[in-house]
Fold this protein.
Amino acid sequence: MEYKSLDQQLIEYRQKRALAMPLSGMIVWTLLFIMSFILPSSQLVMATFICTGSIIYLAMGVSRLTGENISFKKSAERNWFETVFLAGIGMSFLTFSISIPFFMENYLALPFALAVQSGLMWLIYGVLAAQKVAIVHAVVRTLACVAAFMLWPELSFHLQPLIVVVCYGFSIPFMERRWKIQQNLCVAS
C-alpha cells in the first residue's frame, strides 16, 4: 500500500469532477418542484422527506456514469478529504432531526428546512475543493430560501425546490467548466 500525504490527497481531491452529487440534487429537487403542482400536501410531505433523503443514494448510482464512484465502503485507498465530505453528508442527514419537530409545528416549513439543511454540504465541499462557486451556492441558497419562506410561506413547496434548482443551474456549469480546464491542463503538461 502506497502512503499519500494529506497534501497529495488534497491535490487529488481538488482534481475530481464532483458532478454526481449536484446532478442528483438537481434531479431530486426538480422532481419535487414538478410534484408540488400534482400531489396533495400529505403526499408531498412524504415525497419531500423520501426524495431529499435519497439524494446521496442517487448520487452513488450517477457517480458510476460520471466516473466518480461515490461509496460508503471504508477503503484503505479512500482519499481522506472524501471521508470528510461524506461526514458532511452525514451531518446534513443528522440535521433532518431539526426538520421533524419544525415540520410538526408547520408542515409548510418542511421544504424550507430541508432545502437549507441539505445544502450545508456545499459549504464543506467548497472549502475542501477550493471551489468558490460551491460556497456562493451555499450562501445564496440559504439566503434565498429564508427570504422566500419569510415572504411566501404558503408557496414553500413550490418556491424552495425552484430556488435550489436555480442554484444548481448556476453552480453545475461553473464546476464542470473548472473540471474541464483542469483536465486540459493535465493533458498539456
The two ends are 27 Å apart (CA to CA). The chain has ten helices and no strands.
